[in-house]
Amino acid sequence: MILQNQKKKTGIIVVAVIVSIVLYLAGVFSGLHANKLIKEETEQDIYTLKEETKQDLESLQNYVDFLDKSLKNMQLEQTFMETLTSEEMCAYSAISLDELFNQLGYYWDRLPFRMEEYERYNEPSEEYNLLKQQYAHLSIRAWIIAKNQYEKCNKDMVNGLYFYSADCEECIAQGEQLDDLNKKMKDLNKDMVLFPIDFFLNDTIVVNLKKYYSIKSTPALIINNEVYQGRLFSSDELLLNQK
């Protein structure tokens, strides 16, 4: 009976030892697996960071290339236009403006139709901001050509810039009024060339235009060289000033 009890105790001890060893090994292997997972996640984070940095640098380089190309095009066009008569210059400006509209189509397909509304309710991504900068440069360039046609070529059109900001309470309503103005201009068989520009865009040409036209707040409009700012302007009010 005593021998039987001793065997029973020995068996219990052996089982306890085996269970302890299994639990220990399980802890060791779990720790090794966890370390492996952490290592893999860390390596993945480093890879992702490298890829994002690479993409940021590529985006920056693409933007620099875009600005360089735009500047060279403008310089070449200006040099060429200086050799033309007034009538020839107007004809070439129309061609140049059409080409710019073709380029702007790329951004119209990718940027929201109403930028002021989108930016008020969404957090813009880096890609969005880069596209917006490129769009602003092309838009201002197109506006300058349209402005030149209006002033020197007797072109019957409405041209201008619309300065908005995400914190502007009336900018969404102003954008809607400009949409309505565009429809009314079409009914009168008049062209309307008006581009939205972010008031806070950190860009030299935008800053200089705001200084030159004394743009202090949003919504603000430059339409056919007239400045409207400080409140919401209805489409009927703007239309009346263009007749």
Please explain how this structure is put together.
- The chain is an alpha+beta fold and 243 residues long.
- It has a single domain (58-242), classed as Glutaredoxin (3-Layer(aba) Sandwich), CATH 3.40.30.
- It is 71% helix and 10% strand.
- It has seven helices and four strands.
- It has helices at 2-81, 86-110, 115-121, 126-152, 171-187, 204-212, 235-242; strands at 157-164, 191-198, 220-223, 226-229.
- Strands 2-1-3-4 form a four-stranded mixed sheet.
- A hairpin with a 2-residue loop joins strand 3 and strand 4 (226-229).
- Helix 1 (2-81) packs parallel to helix 4 (126-152), helix 2 (86-110) packs antiparallel against helix 4 (126-152) and helix 5 (171-187) packs across helix 7.
- It starts with a helix and ends with a helix.
Keywords summarizing the entry:
243 residues; alpha+beta; Glutaredoxin; 4-stranded mixed β-sheet; 71% helix
Summarize the topology.
Blueprint: H1 2-81, H2 86-110, H3 115-121, H4 126-152, E1 157-164, H5 171-187, E2 191-198, H6 204-212, E3 220-223, E4 226-229, H7 235-242
Parallel strand pairs: 1-2
Antiparallel strand pairs: 1-3, 3-4
Short description:
With 243 residues, this protein is of the alpha+beta class. It has a 4-stranded mixed sheet. It has one domain: Glutaredoxin (3-Layer(aba) Sandwich), CATH 3.40.30.10.
Helical percentage: over 70%
CATH class: Alpha Beta
Strand elements, count:
4
Distance between the termini: 119 Å
Q: Structural class, from secondary structure content?
A: alpha+beta
What string, H for helix and E for strand, traces the elements in order? HHHHEHEHEEH
How many domain units?
1
Largest sheet: 4 strands, mixed
Second rung of CATH, namely the architecture: 3-Layer(aba) Sandwich
Low-confidence stretches: 1-35
Query: What is the CATH topology classification name?
Result: Glutaredoxin
Instruction: Please give the count of helices.
Output: 7
Q: Which shape, going by the Cα principal axes?
A: globular
Strand content is: 5-15%
Q: Trace the largest sheet across and list its strands.
A: 2-1-3-4
CATH H-level superfamily title? Glutaredoxin
Average of the residue pLDDT scores: 77
Rg on CA atoms, Å: 33 Å
